[in-house]
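Sequence dictates fold. Below is an illustrative record:

_____
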Amino acid sequence: MFTDYTKIVIKSGDGGNGAVTFRREKYVAAGGPDGGDGGNGGNIYFQVDKDKNTLIDFRYNRKFKAMNGENGTGSHCNGKYGEDLYIKVPIGTVIKDAETGKVVADLSEPNQVELVLKGGRGGRGNSHFKTATRQAPRFAEDGEKGEEKEIILELKLLADVGLLGFPNVGKSTFLKAVTDAKPKIANYHFTTLEPNLGVVKTKDGNGFVIADIPGIIEGASEGIGLRNPIFKTCRKNSIIVAFFRCIRTRR
């Protein structure tokens, strides 16, 4: 079991402002207020995508923002609502608040959709503030600001293929050659300290996950394999790679 982890910033849309306008037509000398309401800002949803199996896309795009609502106009015309933003993640993704560590959503069901941030409410136009004693209000409400939050995405997944072998025999090099992963590669023992994940893309579009597992030999905790001559004997063997199939987290 490995954990894919990334941190991103999300912001819901701002609400549009209400309009301050008055009816002006021929033969209507003093029309009343007719300012429309601002549109609500877009919400942010997270949606399970069965075709995704890692969080690699979020390593290059770390900020997501929904659209703002449009301002109201005259003739009681309300502003357009901001378009909602749907962020697609693999099944098994857990969303946490980066500041508090609280779990916001657990996306563990196929096609599951969760509302994470709600957009700001649009402001009311001046037509809402007309009274018997105030027949020409020259003010309106501003739209509410959208929420902004830094969140953590965690994905617990099982690798489809695992690379096993002695330290420093080419497992990371192999992973880099067949996937887009960029593991640290160097000519010294135990370069890989934590598992690296990579996705192999196939022609039919069905990819699978490879895990580059840190090299493990008996007695490693006592320093064997670092400056111990026993390791030289082990290195005489060519790379030992074991492939194993595991159950996908996708249902």
User: Anything to note?
Assistant: The radius of gyration is 28 Å. The mean pLDDT is 80. Helices lie at 171-178, 230-235.
